[in-house]
Amino acid sequence: MRLRACIALLLFLSACATPAPIRNERTVRNPRLANLQRAAKLPWTDGGQCVVREASQPWPVLVERCYRTLDHDRIEFHDTTGRCSIVSADAAAVGLGFCVLAAPEIAVGAVIVLGVVVIGVAIKEALDAYEFRHAYPEEAGTSRGTKVASQEAEAQRKPKPKPEPAGQDWQPPVPPESLERERRPECRPVPVRHLGGNDPHNECADKIPNNSFPGWDVLINGKNFDGLVLTTRTLWDVKTDDFEKQLPRSQRFFVRMKLPELRREAKIARDCGYNFVIGVRSAAHKAVLLDEDPTLKVVIMDWC
After folding, report:
1. 226 and 214 Cβ atoms separated by less than 8 Å
2. Residues in the chain where the model's pLDDT stays below 70
3. How far apart (Å, rounded) are the C-alpha atoms in residues 62 and 56?
4. Which site from 118, 134, 148, 295 is most exposed, i.e. has the minimal number of CB atoms within 10 Å?
């Protein structure tokens, strides 16, 4: 109860501490993006997966739900403002660290991180995905209902960046032919809502490791894919049926019925410069798929 009361008070303080919007501001800061950027400065034991999952919540709620995944051995908390002693006199019940971290604005010296912080993989993926969506403002503007300039016009205004020197800590370079393919409008990945009707399937797809768009399908050349991992340029098709419970003859028939569509998806991905992976739940499903078409890449999803 004390913890809930602390969160409620911090939310109230956050609302009071938020300055009135400036009318001349060109953009309104995205709360989810702000939370991700704030969390990127902290060390997380889970790579930031909890942060990405809760990033749309107010910051104090995110801290409450993800506080346990912090690398506490690398963080020191100091109540420099005395606010936490007012929020709760029982530091053992609420936790000084939680109170300091969940404050609307972290005071200078309140949170000290020991060592260099490497951005959690999940947080980096989410930030990259946000930047990627804004790299294609035509598609992003359509999904959000906002008016934005075209990417082609932006490209004409800006000079082409010089190649990064070797050794940069960044994503591996994309082959020139892949970049050329991606310039084609039909090859640009557009996040779209899940098709619906199968929540367990969608939940499984959202948990694809390093999925850049959890909660969304990705539209490529008119085809919905279940997931996209930007860092490896890999598109996913997830299969969550109970394949292993079927008779062997039925299993073979089921795979042969699905093969033409899987091959079409693989071709769409390949033509646009992406890898293509089929996720299945059982070794039996993987074995039959590869027996029918050894060129397919099939992965057993141990997270479903």
Report:
1. no
2. 1-29, 83, 85-95, 104-108, 132-183, 196-197
3. 8
4. 295
Q: Are 269 and 220 in contact (CB under 8 A)?
A: yes
Distance CA 296, CA 9 (A): 54
What pLDDT was estimated at residue 259?
A: 94
* Structure tokens belonging to residue 297: 């890449």
| pTM score, whole prediction | 0.46
Lookup result for tokens 């367990």? 200
Are 187 and 181 contacting, i.e. CB atoms less than 8 angstroms apart?
Answer: yes
User: Which positions ≥6 away from 207 have C-beta within 8 Å?
Assistant: 214, 303, 304
HEC per residue, 220-270: ECCEEECEEEHHHCEEEEECCCCHHHCCHHHHHHHHHHHHHHHHHHHHHHH
Where in 142-210 does DSSP place strands (E)?
A: 190-193
> Environment class of residue 292 by beta-carbon count within 10 Å: exposed (0-12), middle (13-18) or buried (19+)?
middle
Which residue matches tokens 């999925």? 211
Single-letter amino acid, residue 50: C
| Cβ atoms of residues 247 and 288 within 8 Å | no
Closest by CA to 26, choosing from 148, 112, 143, is: 148
Phi-psi region at 209: left, alpha or beta (left = phi > 0; alpha = psi -120 to 50): beta
Query: Distance (Å, rounded) from C-alpha 275 to C-alpha 235?
Result: 6
State the DSSP code for 294: T
- Where are the chain's structural domains? 2-16+29-122, 175-300
| Sign of the torsion angle spanned by Cα atoms 120, 121, 125, 131 | positive
